[in-house]
Amino acid sequence: MPVARCTRPPPPPCGCGNWLGCSVARSPTYNAPVIRTDEIVITIDPASRGQDPRAWFPEPGDTELEIGCGKGGFLLRQARAHPRRNFVGIEWANKYLKYAADRMGRWGVANVRLARADARHVVTNCLAPDCLSALHVYHPDPWPKKRHARRRLFTPEFVAAAVTVLRPGGRWAIQTDHREYFEVIRELTLARPELVAVPFDDPDYGTVAERTETNFETKYMREGRPIYRLAFRRRDVT
User: Fold this and answer.
1) 141 is known as an active-site residue
2) What is the pTM of this model?
3) SS3 state of residue 141
4) Catalytic residue among 62, 118, 130, 141
């Protein structure tokens, strides 16, 4: 068990940098025990099937997955707001993964696990059915060039697998700034009878006023780009 404690809180999860004035930074949990990054970063065996991410945590609970978690801002806010839930973040860029892990550790967030992995392979081949209570995919790489389209996350196979790993009633929120990719995503998801469209806003899952406050969303909104959003609940189809 880690024993070190923060003598001064790190920048608040909201990113405002005002640790003295921010209500988040003044939270009584700011001085939670620091957690080593090797307790946060895990390895997902790409050859192992039927993995239940709930087993990656010391405490059982609903488990949510964010694909492309970047620097971890969204996960950090959600994990601190819902300490009885578990959160997994998959990120391919190693520098962002390390940044996010350090961030979680300094805040003493024990209900987050991070992994560097091919998210499409993990969802399609590694996870057990009905193991996730929510799936978050915000600003996946659009790979706009035609020759790169095969690298996109969203394919018919990926969407079918995502539906399978979501439990009945599970939520799937998607956000992109790329219009053509959005149309592809919408066509693929609406074709699944297991998915029913729901409002994107759901404060319980971190979406308020059609905002996720991820780094990409903040950057693109500042640039004036339109943002396209979808959200679904999984239902049983007999």
Assistant:
1) yes
2) 0.83
3) coil
4) 141
